[in-house]
Design a protein that fits this description.
By secondary structure, this protein is mainly alpha-helical. The chain has three domains: about 15-50 and about 120-275, Up-down Bundle (Growth Hormone, Chain: A), CATH 1.20.1250.20; about 50-115, no CATH class; about 340-510, Up-down Bundle (Growth Hormone, Chain: A), CATH 1.20.1250. Helices cover about 60% and strands about 5% of the residues. The protein has helices at about 5-15, 20-25, 30-40, 65-75, 95-100, 125, 135-160, 165-180, 190-215, 220-245, 250-260, 275-290, 330-335, 340-360, 370-395, 400-415, 425-450, 455-480, 485-505, and strands spanning about 50, 85-90, 105-110, 115, 310-315, 325. Strands 1-4 form a two-stranded antiparallel ribbon. A two-stranded antiparallel sheet has the order 2-3. Helix 3 packs across helix 10 (about 220-245). The longest helix is centred in the middle third of the chain and has 29 residues, at about 190-215. The relative contact order is 0.14.
């Protein structure tokens, strides 16, 4: 019973009936949670005024006002503002001598920093993510993306081997435990380690959910199912904007965003889980209880599923006997001239991720209120995702994918040329770029799953996700280049998609075709 046979069954019983709709419903809670973990750190590291702790002078001048203390102990920059990362070195003089002669020698903030007392605790204030430590913010985002990458390496092949259900449950458990655990970490490096684990769990959920949607839903409704889950992700982004606005304490925000994933365990038993197309076809026939002209499964092992050590599948050939076994390794797939599109597939997934996260993680630097910008970023994704449903059905996969990538790159290049003081213009362009990047990202999810044959689809999707995660790791690190010139990051985020969009025209069209069984 090859995948084309499963497709015929789906056509006969309905390719998007109540059964499949329940499956799509399963993706709601995980997608909301994934959106939170992707971008929550943006709201935990606010841009706050700070200066060196200079309380040493209080020992000789206890009656000084705050302004007098700062004026005596902090140097000023070229704009006349107090330096945030240096102070005058302490001396053994009396207060009169200090006021008369002043201080000249400076040093770093070896005693820490002082922040506005009215501000609730944040990652920035608790772990001093300022001055020499400010790069830890973007590095932490890269570590989280590294977790997404590791999740691709681990959970993609594991899902092919032991099935979707175990992988999803393992991923949900890790995300719930380590997500809540982040709220109690005592050190920032522990925070980064926990975030890495959460990132791996996020990938475990997304790649397995994508495989389920691809394998259980008919070709005409497959884009709708995948993009509905992406719309839930966009709603999660909007919820994050409101949640972070109402809960400013970073530890409480972390708990509020991580705890709801525990609700997923209450309805996982309703999901159709499987490993490979034989398992899918068997359970499909059992669920729908369809005769379909005497169609029957010739062989079913006692465990009702296949567990293979590699991406190797055996098809029944009658009388309950395994007559032949056709195996395909990833190496064979990459070398086969009929699947030469694989490197290009990896390319556009890399590019999509780079521009998407390049814009999303830069939300604090566009000059407009971060909560409003995040709300707009989430809201604009909904029409972007929904619009993809109609575009993919009307124009196929290849042309929309290429054009959307080209538009995303063009917007980023335009942003790089806008003066920094034009915050509203930059934000509007960024929202436009987020629209095209989100549409491109959704298209790539559908397109990628259809480009790979069934026998290695999950591993292939995991491989493409790995390429996307590599660019996800690079995106926050590229933002660090803005310290040298603000144009550099956006120029890179714009140039790369332009090249990727042109290369995308070399890929085959998969719209309206059944999933390939093998190479």
């Amino acid at each position: 019973l090859p995948m084309s046979g499963v497709g015929e069954i789906l056509k006969a019983v309905g390719d998007f009936g109540l059964f499949q709709k329940r499956l799509v419903l399963l993706t709601v809670v995980p997608c909301l949670s994934v959106a939170f973990h992707q971008f929550c750190q943006l709201f935990m590291v606010p841009n706050l005024p700070h200066h060196c702790d200079t309380s040493w002078i209080r020992a000789i001048g206890p009656n000084l006002t705050e302004e007098e203390q700062l004026n005596l102990t902090l140097p000023r920059d070229a704009d006349g503002e107090y330096e945030q990362c240096s102070r005058y070195s302490p001396v053994d003089w009396d207060l009169g001598s200090i006021m008369e002669y002043g201080l000249n020698a400076t040093e770093k903030c070896i005693d820490g920093w002082v922040y506005p007392s009215a501000q609730p605790p944040s990652l920035l204030t608790e772990f001093d993510l300022v001055c020499d430590r400010r790069d830890l913010d973007d590095i932490s985002q890269a570590v989280y993306m590294m977790g997404l990458f590791l999740g691709c390496m681990i959970f993609g092949p594991l899902s092919d081997r032991i099935g979707r259900r175990p992988v999803i449950l393992i991923s949900i458990s890790l995300q719930a435990l380590f997500g809540v655990g982040i709220a109690f970490v005592p050190h920032f490096y522990v925070y980064m380690a926990f975030r890495c684990v959460v990132g791996a769990s996020v990938t475990g959920i997304t790649v397995s959910m994508l495989a389920l949607a691809t394998e259980w839903i008919g070709v005409t409704s497959r884009p709708t199912a995948v993009l509905v889950s992406h719309c839930c992700f966009a709603i999660g982004e909007m919820i994050l904007a409101g949640l972070s606005y109402g809960i400013r304490h970073w530890r409480l925000l972390q708990i509020a965003g991580s705890a709801p994933i525990f609700a997923f365990f209450f309805y996982t038993h309703t999901a159709p889980w499987g490993t490979g197309t034989l398992r899918a076809a068997v359970v499909l026939l059992q669920v729908f209880q369809s005769g379909l002209g005497g169609l029957k499964v010739e062989y079913l092992d006692p465990l009702h599923h296949l567990v293979m050590p590699t991406a190797c599948w055996a098809w029944p050939q009658g009388a309950g006997l395994w007559k032949s076994c056709r195996c395909r390794s990833i190496l064979y797939l990459l070398m086969d001239n009929r699947t030469c599109s694989v490197p290009l597939c990896l390319d556009f997934r890399f590019v999509n991720s780079l521009v998407y996260y390049g814009l999303s993680l830069n939300v604090t630097n566009f000059g407009v209120d971060i909560y409003l910008t995040q709300l707009a970023f989430g809201a604009v994704e909904i029409p972007a995702r929904v619009g993809c449903i109609f575009v993919l059905q009307r124009f196929g996969r290849r042309k929309p994918q290429a054009i959307l990538m080209l538009l995303s790159g063009l917007v980023c290049l335009i942003i790089s040329g806008i003066p920094e003081d034009q915050a509203v213009v930059i934000t509007i362009l960024a929202i436009t770029g987020k629209f095209t990047a989100s549409s491109s990202f959704s298209t790539s999810y559908v397109y990628t799953a259809e480009l790979f044959p069934t026998v290695i689809r999950q591993t292939g999707v995991g491989l493409c996700s790995m390429a996307a995660r590599v660019s996800g790791i690079l995106a926050p690190l590229l933002l660090l280049l803005g310290q040298y010139h603000r144009v550099i990051p956006m120029a890179i985020f714009g140039g790369v998609p332009m090249v990727g969009g042109l290369l995308c025209f070399l890929l085959p069209e998969t719209g309206g075709t059944e999933l390939a069984d093998d190479t």
